[in-house]
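Self-study notes.
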Amino acid sequence: MTTIELAAVALFCGLLAWSLARFAPRAVPASTLAVQGVLGVATGLLVREISPSALAGSDWVAILAVAVATLAVCIAAGALLGIHRDISPLTGALSLVAGGSSGVVSIARELGGDDRVVAAVQYLRVALITAAMPFVIAVVYGGTAAEDPSADAASTLPLIVSLALIAVIVVIGALGGKAVRLPCAGLLGPMAITITLEFNGLLVGLDVPMTLTQAAALLIVWQSALGLNRESIRAIRRILPSALALIVVLNLVVAAFGVVLANATGLSQLDGYLATSPGGIYAVLGTTIGTESNVAFVMTSQVIRVVVMLFAAPLVAKMFLRFTPRSAEVVAASDSRQRREMANLQR
């Protein structure tokens, strides 16, 4: 299965969970540390795509600068979306964080945001950017977005060993993260441990089974879908035009960052676009290989962006809760209402 197909499967699983939510049991342990931990390990293993030896020192500076600039643009766009009366600025910011959509959704409620809105906008962002990628490459760059021709037959650990190692990382990461008061320890703790071990060459052969990753993503979205009611669906429907416009603007601004990045590093404009595309990292990987672009540079940029976004999410949440008191009040009221609804449904 190609990386583009895997991205499509992830999106389909999320939408399927949302569509079938009304037939689901009323209590799904989707926000447990186990589910967040699986997503954390899967995200942490992405650093395997980083190739330090293939990049010059100035390239690292440019890549980090673009990642930080993308974060700033996402925060600004989220603040604009938060002006809408149906959501808080915090929810708006989390909705437009361009990196690790399933991870962001999994911690949205914990950070004080409305995970229902965050899930809707995040999946819209991934769908639009992934769908537009072949068109942009063909029309703007004159290339062809071919799929990943064939995956390397890399040696992997036996399934039982991989599952056991993943479980150990999740438990130690979550408990250790809580011990040091790491925000969103269920996700960021295992992710931090995975990144550290991977950089030290201690996770050779480890891979998170795709079915496990997709199941975790499905459960996260399913939980958000269980909280939907007529009022929340109407609210999401009202903000979607604004969210769509901001996603388009975000994509255009980040594409401009790609031009700057390409000029700064001496690579092609296509490399710059793929390196900064704010969504669909698996689709970007497949497209990069298919177009014979600079895989090391593109994937290093993409992975750094995802990691920066996820670790910055708790800091962004604290900033919005501190400087926009209204968001705390809106979220508290929304969470209280949602808890009452869930309690009534479980009776």
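Second protein, same conventions, sequence then structure:
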Amino acid sequence: MRATASKPSERASDYALVVQNVSKTFERPEEITHTLKERVLHPFRRTGHERFQALRDISFVVRKGEFFGIVGRNGSGKSTLLKCLAGIYATDRGAIWVDGRLSTFIELGVGFNPDLAALDNVVLNGIMLGLSPKEARARYDRVIEFAELKEFEELKLKNYSSGMHVRLAFSVAIQVEADILLIDEVLAVGDAAFQQKCFDVFNEMRDAGRTIVFVTHDMSAVNRFCHRALLLERGHAVMLGEPDKVADRYLAVNFDHSAAIEAELAAASVGLEEATAETEVRSFGDGKARIVEVWLEDDDGNRVNSVAREQVASVRALVEFNDDVADPVVELAVENGEHVPIIVASTSERTEHTGRFRQGDRAIFLFNFGNLMAPGRYFPRVTITHRGGGLAVIDRYQREFSFISINARNTGGVIDIPVHTDNWLLDASSHVGEAVR
């Protein structure tokens, strides 16, 4: 157990990890000297440093036997935090208490010698992880069997593929009977079958009451394994709580960040963009009505920029009439980023009579649908046409507003329809294919 301040006494025995107000700052040189010649020619040159704060007052606890997730975008501080927990980095401020034996899955294979075969590397790596030489040798057969590398055990590691390296290193790491496992996203290079094998090990460890801290970008893994999760953003702790809620917030942060970048890029060429956008968007139709605005509302009538999975999405379109129009047809198409329509709906599906509107009238047309769309950004396209007019377009509103579908389950499809599964036993004796419960 290590600490840099007085340990909290309140039910401290329930916690495997306690992190209190931890901050970490790095210094990056503004100018790097690459060669000895540069040093000789400029011996008195002073190099300034830029300070980068990777972690800012991070506090949380991990209970014993808990599977705890840490998520965040690249550069958010996840790996830095994990290395502080492992003792690889010293913290600038704050305290970390660890109650139990640690095993780190941060950089698998560190210490492997490429000129040695599997047996020697397994023994050396096992010793580095805390095993005695005798223990490391005794566990060699289990290691090589789990890694499925028996036929390559005499081969030098420099001839191994990256996947074989990961298999061997992970197999060594799990032999350490640690109380707390710190796992970075080190399994991404493994094949799907081996990743599932690793997840099976994680489940066994969790069932055995070991504490696991897991850093990942995979929100489905967070929902599948974690009891709680922490979201980091630019070194700050943004949210701590239930995995599904943290996963939703993570997706929102990702897409909101992308929107901010797009806005900055658009502002850089605002003159040209504004001049052409209005022409492109408003070049449709005869102009007898104008779609002034399109927006998204939640169940309480508040304007929002995102909708969660299976929640009702309410898309509203404000139309202002510049001339008399009888029974116009309003159509909504929700497109994804590749301009593929995911949802298409029209007022003509319910009624042919939407009303008679006079010059100066304003009306709001509403479309409600349950959100089953895959996670991502979507663009409503609203078109208003004359009744029975075919392609007689009055106005069209497209790609001026977008919203985010928040869905931690990314199935790979464009929509995520709930599917219920069941098991059936065929009665082979009847030879008629009758299904029996």
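Instructor comment on the second fold: The first helix runs from residue 36 to 41.
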